[in-house]
Amino acid sequence: xxxxxxxxxxxxxxxxxxxxxxxxxxxxxxxxxxxxxxxxxxxxxxxxxxxxxxxxxxxxxxxxxxxxxxxxxxxxxxxxxxxxxxxxxxxxxxxxxxxxxxxxxxxxxxxxxxxxxxxxxxxxxxxxxxxxxxxxxxxxxxxxxxxxxxxxxxxxxxxxxxxxxxxxxxxxxxxxxxxxxxxxxxxxxxxxxxxxxxxxxxxxxxxxxxxxxxxxxxxxxxxxxxxxxxxxxxxxxxxxxxxxxxxxxxxxxxxxxxxxxxxxxxxxxxxxxxxxxxxxxxxxxxxxxxxxxxxxxxxxxxxxxxxxxxxxxxxxxxxxxxxxxxxxx
Length: 329
What we know:
This protein is of the alpha/beta class. The relative contact order is 0.19. It is built from eleven helices and 16 strands.
């Protein structure tokens, strides 16, 4: 049996954050909504002694010849050691035989791309077409990628950023002004970001809400992508109550790990509350934004179907370009 090994450097040459990647993720969500994907719950291992966690995600999409299993560690004290917080890899297996086909040593790169692409899908479905000012909470890698992805679907003209570390926020502002070609202002607090923006993206591992319901205003869209574990929470539960519509990537995951989990735990929403899944919109089953005045919220917890979609996309691109090292396994 032969096995292809792809390094992060090779994968970076094969896959970038562009409209093609966004379309791959939109189609993966649609397949999930149409019942064309099998996706088990997330397996998570918490290593509390070292402030670490490991998520394992996977999905099979009907009609795909292969599927991915992703192992994604997050060790959040690593920056003190001069190491990145996130790493990991994806394993590609044959959907017909289960044989190992490829090892994608992406170190979290493909996860970063598919996560940012999902944010763009959410904004394309739910943000106003004429949005001018946008905001981001956080100033890390996803804060950068999410706003790059958003620029591909909405032509905004001003960006507000807030982060707990003001120096990091200032560095973010300087870098993104050059990259995006729009003015970037470091806000004094999260409230300023929300009140001044048409679209807000939250990108933090916060364990207490950063956005309050009284800051919401007509036409606002929020994409919250930081909460992917029971302890993480970026939105006050009342935000979900006061929004005109709540959307998530997968209802069961949001209920178990995301913002819906906290709203139900707080008793402000019932466990059986009706929500829209993002794939229902991309599949045309349900509509996107209904009016310029609608307030919408999308919770992204990260799904295995995204991982299979981006891994296959990367693999096909690598084969077409002649990348990878093939070994006998």
